[in-house]
Specification:
The protein is of the alpha+beta class. It folds into three domains: 162 residues, FAD/NAD(P)-binding domain, CATH 3.50.50.60; 158 residues, D-Amino Acid Oxidase, subunit A, domain 2 (D-Amino Acid Oxidase, Chain A, domain 2, 2-Layer Sandwich); 80 residues. It is built from 13 helices and 19 strands. Strands 4, 5, 6, 12, 13, 14, 15, 16 and 17 form a nine-stranded mixed beta sheet that branches. Strand 1, helix 1 and strand 2 form a beta-alpha-beta unit. Helix 1 packs parallel to helix 5 and helix 3 packs across helix 5. The N terminus is likely disordered.
Length: 485
């Protein structure tokens, strides 16, 4: 169900992007009677939400480093409030679209197994529980032997586990379909093309130019196209120089039809580890599961899964969650590109031109945050009183650095070693300490070579070792931030 928008090309708001964030904002504005155009190809190339496991897991995603900084705690506060919005948000979507409940999992089980390293898995496992207690969220320890669907290789057996009853998951594809139908029924216009340029004059955004060459005018323009928002922002060079550039957190996931026709009732996941979100298996209906996900920083979005990454993912799932997955059918391989700002934090708010807004850079939790950010960005666009603190994440800002250089380097070292253990490396017993001794000065030198003061997050620092393009992006960004300051 698509409105072509061939007539009226003047709108109150033009939302560029049709993933979870863009559609949620467009729908929120259309519900309130505003003329809204949503721009984006129907197949959503490069999108993160189209390939997401869609775990509504604000607590399951917690890491020790997240809650150690003011900015991380602010982001967690948004996640907690978003989680509370999901029941009513999903119910209203189902009613407006004529669809069914998109929930696929009841609760989440977090396992601590023998594959991870104490400096990451143990401390993140404890950090999740500490925040659950702090927010009075229920959870209960469980004996891994009592988890019927869990059947890992004995060498990867879980040491302990706990259940979070209120952290569910949804079917991302069904959610995106419901958002689309509800938006059109609310009177919104879908323009199934890519936007190629922001149109602006005299310090104000006026609309966007589509790949067909047509101009779509709007009082407000919102860049919510994930990592591809960077291409559009680059067409406004003076503004782009003041905003942290976006790169991709490329990830591979798989839909698997289980060989025995079973699926768990809940999400099964590890804590976040090794520069990535934790290994997770999410039920997607009888006999089908979602297996995710990898995370590799790339300066350009990735369209096709790399065999190495898929092989690693499926091996991890079979060894750490359920051995019988190796006898299952690979139904679909999915590729997503998480939008990652160079300082690691979201880009939310007006962006250097009157009427130009950004709603991206949310990394791993854009879909989870979509109900909250849709309402909050709509309030800001319409000039209403905000309800949540987003100003720390405004696009035009100095680089955010949530830890010291030494702490970031140490994080990069530990995560790099953890990657080796998760890949089941076979090295002499004394080699990890030798590798660690080499990594630390190498990361420090790289950080010094990039900038004397600013240091990117650990996963970007690590990725810069092998990506000269990323090194240049970081150097240019830090230099530009000093000029704009």
């Amino acid at each position: 169900m698509t409105s072509s928008g061939q007539g009226d090309q003047n709108y109150d708001v033009v939302v560029v992007g049709n993933g979870a964030l863009g559609q949620s904002l467009a729908l929120t504005l259309a519900r309130r009677g505003h003329r809204v155009a949503m721009v984006g190809r129907p197949n959503r190339p490069w999108a993160a939400s189209a390939a997401a496991g869609a775990m509504l897991g604000c607590f399951g995603e917690i890491t020790e480093s997240l809650v150690a900084s003011e900015y991380g705690r602010l982001k967690l506060n948004l996640d907690v409030h978003a989680a509370r919005m999901w029941p009513s948000w999903a119910a209203q979507l189902a009613e407006e679209s004529g669809g069914e409940d998109v929930r696929t999992a009841e609760g989440t089980v977090v396992i601590l197994n023998t594959i991870g390293v104490p400096g990451i898995d143990d401390v993140n496992y404890a950090a999740i529980q500490a925040e659950l207690r702090r927010h009075d969220e229920p959870f209960s320890d469980v004996d891994p032997a009592d988890l019927e669907w869990l059947d890992p290789d004995p060498g990867a057996r879980p040491l302990k586990a706990f259940h979070i009853p209120n952290e569910h998951a949804v079917n991302a594809a069904a959610l995106l379909d419901q958002l689309h139908v509800a938006f059109v029924r609310a009177g919104g216009t879908v323009l199934p093309e890519l936007a190629t340029r922001v149109d602006y004059a005299h310090g104000r955004a006026r609309g966007v130019v589509l790949e067909s060459g047509s101009l779509v005018r709007g009082e407000h323009v919102v860049l919510a196209a994930g990592v591809r928002s960077q291409d559009l922002l680059a067409t406004v060079p003076d503004v782009a120089a003041t905003v942290p550039p976006l790169v991709s957190g490329y990830g591979v996931s798989a839909l698997v039809r289980t060989g025995d026709g079973t699926a768990p009732g809940s999400v099964i996941r590890t804590p976040n580890r090794a520069f990535a979100c934790g290994l997770h298996v999410v039920p997607r209906g009888q006999g089908e599961v979602y297996v995710g996900a990898t995370n590799i920083i790339s300066t350009d979005p990735v369209e096709t899964a790399v065999i190495r990454d898929l092989d690693f993912l499926l091996d991890c799932a079979g060894a750490q969650v359920r051995r019988n997955l190796h006898n299952s059918g690979l139904h679909r391989v999915q590729v997503g590109n998480r939008p990652v700002a160079l300082d690691g934090f979201p880009l939310l708010g007006e962006a250097g031109l009157s009427g130009l807004w950004m709603m991206t850079g949310t990394y791993r939790d854009g879909l989870h945050l979509s109900p909250l950010l849709a309402g909050e960005m709509a309030r800001r666009i319409l000039g209403e009183e905000p309800e949540f603190e987003l100003d720390a994440f405004r696009p035009v800002r100095a680089p955010i650095q949530a830890a010291t250089r030494e702490e970031i380097v140490e994080g990069a070292v530990v995560h790099q070693l953890a990657t080796g253990y998760e890949c089941d490396w076979k090295v002499p017993i004394n080699w990890p300490s030798l590798i660690e001794a080499q990594l630390r000065p190498a990361y420090l030198k790289l950080a010094d070579d990039i900038d004397p003061t600013f240091t990117p997050p650990p996963e970007l620092l690590d990725a810069a070792r092998l990506q000269p393009t990323l090194v240049k992006m970081l150097r240019d960004y830090y230099a530009a931030s000093r000029v704009s300051a």
